[in-house]
Amino acid sequence: MNTLLISGFGTSINVDKRKLIITNKLKDTRLEFYPHKISHDGIIIDGHTGNITFEAMRWLMKHDINLILLNWNGQLLANVMPEQPKSGKLRIKQYQKYLDSEARFEIALKVVQAKVRNSLNLLEELSRFYECVDRTNIRKTAEKEDLLLLQIMKNSENQDISKSIKQLMTYEGRIAGIYLENLTAIFNQLNPEFNFTGRKNKANSRNYNASDEINALLNYGYAVLESEIRKAINGIGLDYSIGFLHEINQSRTPLVYDIQELFRWMIDISVIQLLEEKKIKKSDFIITENYHTRLGEDVAKKLIEKINSNFNSKYNYKNQKNYSYQVILQDNIQQLSNFISDKKK
Q1: pTM beyond 0.85, yes or no
Q2: Is the pLDDT at 9 greater than 80, yes or no?
Q3: Which of 103, 143, 166, 214 could bridge to 97 as Cys pair (CB 3.0-4.6 Å)?
Q4: Res. 204: pLDDT tops 50
C-alpha cells in the first residue's frame, strides 16, 4: 500500500508527453511520474478545487491506480478503479450463499469472531504499554460475552436468519463497547486536549461529521481503509451490495463493511502511533462553520504515512513466511470468494 495524498486548492493532474504531471501553482509544487515507473497504488484527492483530465484518469486506470475522492469530513465520496473481472458465475454463487441461511450465518459468524479476536489481541498488546488497559478485566468480560455467542450459535439452527444476525451484531457490539472504552482511555492519556468521549455524537450516530480531533482522524483512516477494500473486492469480482453480516440497504456497500470489520484495528493502531509521537496539535485541524472538525493537510499526510507503513509491514501469516497486511487483506477476500464458489470449506 502506497497512497499519495493530493490536497489543497488549485491542484491539477494531467498527462504531458506520456508522463503523469501533478502540480499546485499556489504551493509551487510539481510531481512527475513516467509510465510504469510509479510506486503509488492509490491517489487520494480531498481538495475542493482543481482539475483532472480524461487522459490523466485513463493513465491512472492503465497503471491500476485507485483514484479516491474524499469529502471535507473524511467520508468516501467516490472510488474510481480499473474495470473488474467478468465474474457472472461468482456473483450468482454469492447471491445463492446470501439466500442460504446456514451459509450466510457461517460467514457472518466468522467475520464477527475474527473482528473480536483482532480487537482483543490489540488490547492485549496495548496492555503491555498502558496501565489504563486492564487485560484481566477485559478477559473476564469477554469470557462472559462468549457464553452469549455460544447461545446464539445454538439458537441459529431453529430461528430466522435475520434474528440470528441481529443477535450476532449485539454480541459484536458488546465486545466493541469494551474495546472502545479502553481505546478512549488511551486516546485521552496521549492527548487529553482532544477531549475524546466516543464515536457517536448528537448530530450523526455514524459520526461522519467529527466533533473532535480523534474522530476526525478515525473517520479519515476508515475512509482510506474502505477505499482499499473496495479495490480488493473489485479485483476479485464480488458484488459490494451483497454482504453477509451487514444488512442490504439502498446506496450501501455491505460486503465492504463486512471486510472492513476485520481490519479496523489497523486504523486504530495507526492513530495511536501518531498520537504517541506528540507531533500533532489542535492547530493542525480545521473547524468548520458548523463546528465540525476536519484534518489539515499536514496531519492527513502523517496519518496516511502511518497507515501505509502498517499495511506494508510484514507479519507471519498462516504459520508460513511473512506477508504484508496488503497481501493478507487480498488473501482474505480471495478465501471468501473460494468459499462462495464452493472451492474451499
Answers
A1: yes
A2: no
A3: 103
A4: no
Torsion of CA 11, 256, 90, 117, to 10 degrees: 130
283 has pLDDT over 60: yes
181-186 long-range Cβ contacts below 8 angstroms, 24+ apart:
182/123, 182/126, 182/132, 182/133, 182/138, 183/268, 183/272, 185/130, 185/132, 185/133, 186/126, 186/130, 186/132, 186/133, 186/272
DSSP string, 124-162: HHHTTT-TT--HHHHHHHHHHHHHHHHHHHHHGGGS-HH
Grid cell listed for 311: 499495511
308: number of Cβ within 10 Å:
20
Closest CA to 72 of 268, 227, 305, 287: 287
Q: Which of 46-60, 109-123, 127-141 has the lowest mean pLDDT?
A: 46-60
- Give the C-alpha separation, 72 to 76, whole Å: 10
Asked whether the predicted pLDDT for residue 235 surpasses 90, the reply is no
pLDDT tens by residue, 110-121: 999 999 999 999
From the list 289, 210, 225, 224, the residue with the least C-alpha distance to 45 is 224
